[in-house]
Structure formats: C-alpha cells, structure tokens
From TrEMBL:
Keywords: Amino-acid biosynthesis, Methionine biosynthesis, NADP, Oxidoreductase, Sodium, Threonine biosynthesis. The active site is at residue 205. This is Homoserine dehydrogenase. It holds the Pfam family Homoserine_dh. Pathway: Amino-acid biosynthesis; L-threonine biosynthesis; L-threonine from L-aspartate: step 3/5; Amino-acid biosynthesis; L-methionine biosynthesis via de novo pathway; L-homoserine from L-aspartate: step 3/3. One of its GO terms (molecular function) is homoserine dehydrogenase activity. InterPro entries: Asp/hSer_DH_NAD-bd, HDH_cat, HDH_CS, HDH_short, NAD(P)-bd_dom_sf. It comes from Candidatus Allocopromorpha excrementipullorum. GO terms for biological process: methionine biosynthetic process; threonine biosynthetic process. Belongs to the homoserine dehydrogenase family. Its EC number is 1.1.1.3. Residues 137-316 form the Homoserine dehydrogenase catalytic domain.
Amino acid sequence: MKTVKIGLLGLGNIGTGTYKTLEMNREEIESTLNAKVDIVKILERDTERDRGIDVPVGKFTQDPDEIFTDPEIDIVIELLGGIEPATSFMLKAMENNKHVVTANKAAIAANYHKLMDTARDNGVAFRFEASVGGGIPILSTLTGPLRANKFEEVLGILNGTTNYILTMMTKEGLDYDTALKDAQAQGFAEADPTADVEGIDAANKLTILMALMFDKYVAPEDIPTTGITQITKEKIEEARANNCKIKLIARAKKLENGEIEYEVRPMHISETHPLANINKEFNAVFVKGNAVDDLMFYGKGAGPLPTGSAVLGDVIDIVKTVLK
Ligand code: HSE
C-alpha cells in the first residue's frame, strides 16, 4: 500500500484539530484512499505544549526548507494563519511541486491571484475548502455541483467568533468581553481576535466567495466593513423590541448592470428569518444561482475539528483525483 506523505506547517488550534481528525478517522480515510497517510514533518516552534495528541518529537522541525525540499512529501498543509510568512511558504511549496491545502483565508484573500497562478504554473493542486465556513463544504460545491449556474447573490454569517459573541449576548445576557474570552478558549477566534470582531475575517471570506462565484477579485480592504465592537446590550434590546436579532452579515449581489455590490456589517434580522436562528459558532451561507435558485448551507464555521474535517477533505480529494 502506498503512503501519502504530508508536511504540516503549524500545530496550533487548527493544526491540532487536523491531526486529531486524522488520528480519529485514520482507518476510514486510509481505506477510502487505499493508501496510508503520514504527517511526516511538522513546522512548529512549540514542541512542548500539551495538545492532547501524541506527536513523535522527531516529526518536529524548525526549518521550513526541510519540508519544501523533501522529495518524498506530496502535500503541504499550511495552517500557520496570517498573511506572512504563510503566503511565501505556500508559494515555495508549490514551486517545489507540492500540492497545497490551507485554511488561511487572510493569505488567500490578500494574494488570491498570485497563489492561484503559481499553483497553475507549477501544475499542482491548491485547495482551501476550510478557509470559508469551516466544516461547511461550500467552496467545492460552488466550483463543482453548482458550476452550471450564474450566481446572483450570496448572503452569509461567515464568522463563528462574532456569531458566538452575539448569540451569548442575546440569549445568555453575557457581556462582550466574557463572550469573546469564551470563544477564544474554544479555539474559534483568530490568534488576534481583532480580525474577527472588526469584520475583517468575514471580509476575507467574502473576497474568496466573490472570486469563485463572480470571477471578480475584490481586495478585503475594499469591502465596506463594520464589525461588532459597537454592539451593546442596549442595541441588542432595541433589535429585540423590533422582533429582530443582530447578526454580522457578509453580502454580495450581482446587479442588473453586471456590477457587484458587497459589504460586511451587523444587520437587524427578523426573528422569523432562518439566519436569525444560526447560533454560536455555526455559520450559514445563502446562495442564489439562476438555475438552482435559493440554497442554504449550514454548519460549524469555526473550531479545530470542523475545520480539520475540511482540511482533510481537501487532502483526500487531492490523493483521489491528482495523486491517484
Ligand atoms: N476565527 C474564525 C471564525 C475561524 O471565528 O469564524 C474560522 O474561520
């Protein structure tokens, strides 16, 4: 039986979730692939932290080139987060003929064309299902089963941390800081939660969705974006008095004239609307296609295991379709 060898960049929350998912479901994954899957090297400084997984110490390296230049490594999984050095590392991996899987929406949104072009020029796969909607398989659905559509609109709750905070403020009466700390403790938030609460993470994800749906790249900094830092208990009560809930919504719509309007901001959502009942770290994405009409996708948008599920789904797909 052949062995697929993987180099992993980063063993933080998502790296650990990916490692755990592989350990938990190894038998099923390997039998599906008819191949063994081995994470052979892990780029990570912190080799001591108790992550609740058993990682042989010999797998750790501090030198990324050990991964990029290892001829035996087929796939590099990038889970460092942040734009740099993650982007440079992904480019280097592709230039060394490694297929790349990532969950890193900030890096993709900032360098979408560069990453896509470099993957194409080097004949390698570049997959990033985990970058939008965590465990929800939205990107491969847009580029696969929904490809026959002209897309008209996307509307979504795309950030688990802020949805968790707003849910806890609305349902449990928690204050903002306690709810944020809770979300961080559960591994939903970015290393620096500013990107979550200021709406930047949702804007990064909207950039990726628009690129795939409308073939239009809009840099995240060009998306009008308002986060949730100004949401107070009073504003939540005001919404409740109008039978609404406040949700951070990312939205893009193709207009009659072909232009696309887009924004990320907290919106009042009627309590009867399905989006009002998406709670905690769950995400939901509404998509309208001209043939399929309305679709809604729902699932855990953040957290180590749901995100690990999407990362490994991409790995499995590459092994099945590219390395076969
Ligand atoms: N910080 C992100 C969120 C992680 O809360 O949604 C998943 O992309």
